[in-house]
Amino acid sequence: MTELLDAVERTALLTAALRAAETWREDRIYEDPFAGALCGEIGDELLAEVRAATFPTQGPRTLPSTPDYNAIRTRYFDDYLQQAAREPGMNQIVVAPAGMDSRAYRLDWHRHTRYFEVDRPAVLAYKQSRLAGVAPRVDHRTAAVDLTSPDWEEGLLAVGYDPGLPSTWLLEGLLYYIPEADGHRILERVAAFSAPDSRIAADVVNAAALTLPTMRGLLDVFAGWGCPWVFGTDEPESLFDRYGFSVRAIQPGESGADFGRWPDPVPPRDETNVRRVFFVDGRRR
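User: That's the sequence. What structure does it adopt?
Assistant: Structure tokens below.
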């Protein structure tokens, strides 16, 4: 099945391998008991390549610590989705793209929650094969569609999504892999498919993260897999505001996005020519 996964979806296997590695740590900040099965041997190989680039045997680390970043991101969005699901009337969670996400299987959910996963058919089929016999802990529904297709909304409608009701969307590990124009189109379509007071969360990088020489080692790894980082923004609040979302953006290491794990200084927002990543979350107006 893995040969059916295209280059971008290798990052889903990498994420699963990172979550498996986090689960094995004594100081873990979350547990994902399904990540090891989901990542497979390919995920482990991809993680080894990232580790070799990030933690050189000679010389200090200059790249961001991918394991720590992924751990913080996973925990941050775990908490965000759980909080959203506790809101009265918030009964729709949409994870797009779903990748190897296992939150439907490993977290507790309100009994009225509908948990939608959107991703390409090959991704969802691979995940189903790896989790055969495991029951989700929520009303779990999948839409096997590509977010860049002209009619992905129809796939969500077909499995019970109601655009007239509030929803919570998670766009995790997506925006920096797609061209800027496609990112704008996705945000525009998500906004049009979300009722007022819906919620959204995502992670984005800044523009400098795509070009800084100190990022080259990591950027070359992803480019070598056929999934380069191609989009970043220095003003994530403005990006989402353009499509009707009022959001905040915080960086790993700041209060609420640390969990005792971010190893590097957090650059002030007015500092230029530094790499940074943002966790964005907010609401549809």
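The chain has a mean pLDDT of 95.
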